[in-house]
Design brief:
This protein is extended. The chain is mainly alpha-helical. Helix 1 runs antiparallel to helix 2. The N and C termini lie far apart (35 Å). It is 76% helix and 0% strand. The chain contains three helices and no strands.
Length: 90
């Protein structure tokens, strides 16, 4: 369900951050990463679920969410500028 929103956004943002000469290669790399995530993600999730169990899974999710929020806040710290289209081409 989430991929139906995420995939078009990722695919449409590639021309904004990549030069036209590298566009085909960039699309291929993004597609490969997406396919690997679709194959490896459920496998790792199943192994993790069987190792940790249902009761401890909620605590682990909270820890991962907290780490993700910290990473996002640290990476955004000091960036008050709005990114313009094509800003990565410089």
């Amino acid at each position: 369900a989430v991929s139906s929103f995420e995939t078009p956004v990722v695919q449409s943002s590639i021309p904004l951050i990549q030069e036209k000469s590298h566009l085909i290669q960039s699309n291929a790399i993004v597609s490969q990463i997406n396919m690997l995530a679709n194959l490896i993600g459920p496998l790792l999730a199943g192994m993790f679920y069987s190792a940790v169990g249902k009761t401890d899974l909620q605590g682990v999710r909270i820890i991962f969410l907290g780490c993700a929020i910290c990473i996002i806040r640290l990476s955004a710290k000091g960036t008050n500028e709005v990114m313009k289209p094509g800003c990565f081409r410089e």
